[in-house]
């Protein structure tokens, strides 16, 4: 697809954030205790947990993770409010707490999107072409603050890839591993890796398409490591995105050495093998 046509499409879709959907992938009342750490589902109607999870992620993930930090996103941005509404109402997100405590020590936000037969998939466009075009559209629409516009279109890129791959391979839904952050005392336990495997297992057993978005080279390589059964659906280096702030500076300039943004999906050619393997876990 020509860049001019893609930019026309993105201009028409900017501000129309991707759909929300509730699917309790692990169960509405799911909990899992590992040592003295308790993981539990964030119910879509649990306003108290939704609120503290949102604040935890704003104070941690948004200040540390490469993309939201570079974009200088905050809870005041409309696109961020939409992100949280999507994740915290999904039924597939979780919080981690110390047993017997209400303090949140970690939060993983995941969403499941059903295959939408009415969605107009943008075909013949790579991830790098989409995100570069998104930068041009964002800067044209809001030269003083293009970052939230680009963030919106980044999510639309993820959604588009997920819808296309899931529909092509007869999957019923896309499960997107979204934002995640845990405190150091949890990272050392291995509970995050175990939880990710558990979530992927549930998605694949229900004929879903797992999708993730590594944002640094180390995570990109780990995701594609042997035995992970993931393939790269697209990648772009931060230096090639082309998004500039109001002062003309590359938004991702401090991340150039970290690699770029990738989209990884489950390798559908190995689904039968995966289901057999995961049935034994």
How would you characterize this protein structure?
It is built from 12 helices and 8 strands. The protein is α+β, with helices and mostly antiparallel strands. It has one domain: Aminopeptidase, CATH 3.40.630. It has an 8-stranded mixed sheet, with helices on both faces. β1 and β2 form a beta hairpin. The mean pLDDT is 90.
Structure, briefly:
With 281 residues, this protein is an alpha+beta fold. The chain has a single domain (3-278), classed as Gcn5-related N-acetyltransferase (GNAT) (Aminopeptidase, 3-Layer(aba) Sandwich), CATH 3.40.630.30.
Q: Could you name the CATH topology? A: Aminopeptidase
Poorly predicted regions: none
Number of domains: 1
Overall 3D shape: globular
Can you tag this structure with a few keywords?
281 residues; alpha+beta; Aminopeptidase; eight-stranded mixed β-sheet; 43% helix
Describe the SSE topology:
Layout (H helix, E strand, L loop, with lengths): L2 H11 L17 E4 L2 E5 L5 H13 L1 H4 L1 H6 L6 H11 L5 E5 L5 E11 L12 H15 L5 H22 L4 E10 L1 H4 L3 H15 L2 E5 L4 H7 L6 E8 H4 L18 E7 L4 H8 L3
Parallel strand pairs: 5-6
Antiparallel strand pairs: 1-2, 2-3, 3-4, 4-5, 6-8, 7-8
Helix pairs in contact: 1-6, 6-7
């Amino acid at each position: 697809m020509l860049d001019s046509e893609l930019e026309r499409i993105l201009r028409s879709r900017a501000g129309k954030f991707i759909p929300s959907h509730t699917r309790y992938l692990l169960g509405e009342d799911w909990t899992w205790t590992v040592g003295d750490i308790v993981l539990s589902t964030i119910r879509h109607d649990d306003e108290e947990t939704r609120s503290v999870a949102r604040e935890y992620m704003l104070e941690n993930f948004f200040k540390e993770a490469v993309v939201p930090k570079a974009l200088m996103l905050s809870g005041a941005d409309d696109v961020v409010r939409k992100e949280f509404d999507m994740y915290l109402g999904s039924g597939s997100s979780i919080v981690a707490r110390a047993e017997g405590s209400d303090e949140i020590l970690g939060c993983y936000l995941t969403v499941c999107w059903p295959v939408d037969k009415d969605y107009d998939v943008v075909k013949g466009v790579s991830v790098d072409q989409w995100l570069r075009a998104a930068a041009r559209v964002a800067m044209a629409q809001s030269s003083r603050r293009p970052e939230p516009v680009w963030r919106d279109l980044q999510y639309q890129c993820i959604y588009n890839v997920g819808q296309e791959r899931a529909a092509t391979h007869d999957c019923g839904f896309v499960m997107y591993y979204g934002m995640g952050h845990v405190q150091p005392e949890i990272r050392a336990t291995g509970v995050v890796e175990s939880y990710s495997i558990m979530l992927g297992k549930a998605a694949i057993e229900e004929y879903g398409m797992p999708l993730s978005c590594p944002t640094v080279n180390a995570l990109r390589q780990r995701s594609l490591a042997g035995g992970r059964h993931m393939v790269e659906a697209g990648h772009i280096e931060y230096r090639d995105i082309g998004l500039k702030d109001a002062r003309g500076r590359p938004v991702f300039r401090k991340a150039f050495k970290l690699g770029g943004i990738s989209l990884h999906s489950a390798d559908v050619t190995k689904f039968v093998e995966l289901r057999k393997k995961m049935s034994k876990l």
